[in-house]
Amino acid sequence: MTQTRQTPPQAIPRKRKQHSRTGNGRGMLYVMLALAVILLVFMVAVYPVCMVGAPETAVIRIPRDATEKNVNDSLTKYFGADYTAKVMRLVKIRRPDFSQRHGAYEIKQGANALSAMRSLTSGAQKEITVTVNGYRSLNLLIDNLARKFDFSADDLFNALYTPGFLESYGLTRDQALALFVDDSYNAYWSFSPSQLLKKFGDNYLRIWNEERVKRAAALGRTPAEMMIIASITDEETNALQEKGTIGRLYINRLDKGMRLQADPTVRFAVGDFTIRRVQGADLRFDSPYNTYIHKGLPPGPIRTTSLKTIQLILDARPNDYLYMCAKEDFSGTHNFAADYGSHAQNALRYQHALDERGIKK
């Protein structure tokens, strides 16, 4: 039997395919518009905040009871108005209380506005390092310290001389310079005078631990007296190999009731450390620090000293030296003697060397 051929189903009309392409085109258009909006938002809002960096590194100091204006002015000083405006826009969103942010905060070169805002509103303070090294004047030391912190030199002096403070370290008012041992100290700009002094005091107590106190006592000296001896030793020589010997020589003279007759104490009394040849008028200068006139140690140190010098004196071998004189070769070292006759010969050679070089003072 003959089968009837069935007509195949008709294909999907072309107009439906055209409709699909039109829908896809609109979708792409929406995607492109969305990307454009995102890019616009990025360029207007995100790029300035996240991509524009600080032109330099600076530490922004926020004083006590600061306002937004104080912070704005500090930022502008270092970074200019444009960068500052970006940071302050973010600050207004967070709305911090700058009166409670007393401190110093570092903004590094290249930091974006968001990072800067976080540093100022919730970041940790930038530590500062203060170094004490061979200060010959307490006034100069206090002035230099105060310049690095948010308090005055008078504030620091008042804290230093608070009744009972120096006494708690075994020091008198005249011995105050001893508290500031040569070293580097980390602190914060917002420290109070008392907080800073505690840093120095803690280091002093660390140095004068039980062992060193006992070793000083074995030499018949208190820590405060050892600080004075070390300070004179440091002024007498820069040669490490001699510091222990010289320190012990001073102790020998003290033990025998002799005057120290240390030239550095005369320079300190006169107020002129440039003197190379201490002479008659200087030796007669009336001051408790002039050890040619007064027996015993001067009232306090003549400069700040270091743990290194203290340790060299404590570790030095005992000697019987009572006299010393700078060597005639001007090497900065000394000739030592146990008797005055030998010392006189050493001194004569040195005086001749001074005369030959025309050194009068």
Describe the fold and architecture.
It is a single chain. The chain is mainly α and 361 residues long. 51% of the residues lie in helices and 8% in strands. The chain has 13 helices and six strands. The strands form three sheets. The chain has a two-stranded antiparallel sheet. The protein has a two-stranded antiparallel sheet with strand order 3-4. A hairpin with a 7-residue loop joins strand 5 and strand 6. Helix 9 (240-255) packs across helix 12 (307-315). The radius of gyration is 37 Å and the shape is elongated. It starts with 13 loop residues before the first helix and ends with a helix. 29% of the residues are buried. Residues 41-46 have low confidence and may be disordered.
Question: What are the SSEs and their pairings?
Answer:
Blueprint: H1 14-50, E1 58-62, H2 68-94, E2 103-107, H3 113-122, E3 127-132, H4 138-146, H5 153-160, E4 183-188, H6 193-207, H7 210-218, H8 223-236, H9 240-255, H10 263-270, H11 280-283, H12 307-315, E5 323-326, E6 334-337, H13 340-357
Antiparallel strand pairs: 1-2, 3-4, 5-6
Helix pairs in contact: 2-3, 8-9, 9-12
